[in-house]
Write a structure and sequence with these properties.
- There is one protein chain.
- The chain has 18 helices and 14 strands.
- The protein is of the alpha/beta class.
- β3 (about 60-65) and β4 form a beta hairpin.
- It has 2 domains: about 1-205 and about 395-415, 3-Layer(aba) Sandwich (Rossmann fold), CATH 3.40.50.2000; about 210-390, Rossmann fold, CATH 3.40.50.
- α1 (about 15-30) crosses α18 (about 395-415), α10 packs across α13 and α14 (about 325-330) packs across α17.
- The strands form 2 sheets. It has an 8-stranded mixed sheet, with helices on both faces. Strands 11-10-9-12-13-14 form a 6-stranded parallel sheet, with helices on both faces.
């Protein structure tokens, strides 16, 4: 099968969708012998570079990584402030096509990608993820070349500014097939008028072998934590991940468990400076390495981070899935998330983790204390999560399901 993946970023960019497409692409090559090319941007760190010139970029061009051909297209990220003001004015004025002004601000602006997608001689085009413009480049390129297009949206419906855009749902209607990350996303799309038969719910995956080798003692020795209880947040250090909620809950946790440690691990972005200011105001947060912020860790270090913690807390309200829950479960760790968006369709409250109401920092603190004080409950939740992975969320299972959707899309296009 000759496949073109279109995605906003590719390794070394860190993110759930970026990791999914990397793992999927490499396994399609290695396990199925498929020919896989990835069209992406030259972002080096995160999507903020789509409108911020201060963010780093990678050289544009073509390279091969683990058998996958990667083509990085140069971004146009100038006039970010002007684009932002235009989107705000369009919203204020209730302009009928204001969703396009939002998309113009978000980007990525890649002026030749649509034409290059149309020129690509592949059997199927698969693009991830909304609300970014490359999804529309993929759809339009596929139309020009009469190639089936599969869209993997990774929708965050709770983020209305990004996802309340008619252009997104029009694109999904026009795609050959659609892949949802969760039953929450599937149900949301059906309510928006997308035919249920077009939607395939798969999710993301995790490499159990990678986490089986994890050694939590390395990180504990590095920071002198010994056997102290460790709470971890792992994810992009951005505001929408809800880190401020976790920090607001920590004084309550430290009152009950003064020896507890907090690790914030993730890709550093523009929010990191504001995060550091919040941390500086926390009482005694830096004493005895009580709070550590570890930015831009390597993929090889990730498993050790999860192995070192007792509880993963991920208080984001805007997830389409939440791959970090799988990564914690791969190390048999209990998790805490919010009762928001797709999270309740991934984490089963009271079975493999705990869910609390959004913005309720008191409930979040109580949940953390509950698990710190009950090791046997933590262990049973971690085991339940591990079992869920083996049933549904290994990379082999996910790759097989994605490939089946691609083949169905090819067959449908050939018969139409």
């Amino acid at each position: 099968m000759k496949i073109l993946h279109v995605v906003q970023g590719y390794t070394p960019v860190i993110g759930g969708t970026e990791l999914l497409i990397q793992k999927l692409s490499e396994r399609l090559v290695q396990q199925y012998g498929d020919n896989v090319t990835v069209f992406t941007t030259n972002a080096a760190r995160n999507c903020e570079v789509f409108w911020l010139q201060s963010e780093p970029t990678l050289p544009a061009g073509i390279e091969k990584i683990n058998g996958v051909t990667i083509r990085r297209f140069p971004l146009f990220n100038k006039l970010g402030h002007v684009r932002h003001q235009l989107s705000k004015f369009a919203d204020w004025s209730k302009f009928p096509r204001r969703d396009w002004f939002r998309a113009l601000f978000n980007g990525p602006l890649l002026f030749n990608m649509t034409a290059e997608i149309a020129n690509f001689k592949g059997e199927v085009i698969a693009a991830s993820s909304f609300p970014f413009l490359h999804m529309h480049y993929a759809l339009n390129g596929g139309k020009r070349s009469h190639t089936p297009v599969v869209l993997h949206g990774a929708l965050h419906p709770t983020d209305s500014w990004s996802f309340e855009r008619p252009m997104i749902y029009k694109a999904i209607q026009q795609a050959t097939a659609y892949i949802a990350n969760s039953t929450f996303e599937q149900d949301y799309l059906v309510k928006r008028g997308i035919p249920a038969q077009k939607i395939n719910t798969i999710g993301v995956g995790v490499d159990l072998a990678q986490f089986a080798k994890a050694d939590g003692s390395i990180l504990r020795q590095t920071y002198g934590w010994g056997k102290s209880p460790v709470i971890a947040f792992v994810g992009q250090l951005s505001k929408r991940k809800g880190i401020h909620l976790l920090l607001a809950a920590m004084p309550q946790v430290w009152q009950a468990y003064p020896e507890a440690k907090l690790l914030l691990a993730g890709a550093r972005g523009t929010y990191a400076e504001q995060l550091e200011q919040i941390i500086a105001k926390l009482p005694a947060s830096t004493e005895n390495n009580r709070l550590i912020m570890q930015s831009n860790f390597s993929e090889s270090d990730k498993a050790n981070i999860f192995a070192a913690c007792d509880v993963l807390v991920f208080p984001s309200q805007e997830e389409s899935f939440g791959i970090v829950f799988l990564e914690a479960w791969a190390c048999r760790k209990a998790v805490i998330g919010l009762r928001a968006g797709a999270i309740p369709s991934i984490v089963r409250d009271g079975v493999d983790g705990l869910l609390v109401a959004p913005d309720d920092t008191n409930a979040l603190g109580q949940a953390i204390c509950q698990l710190l004080g009950n090791p046997s409950r933590r262990d049973s939740m971690g085991e339940a999560g591990y079992h869920k992975i083996t049933e549904h969320y290994t990379w082999d299972i996910v790759t097989r399901k994605f490939r089946a959707v691609y083949q169905q899309a090819i067959n449908k296009s050939a018969n139409s």
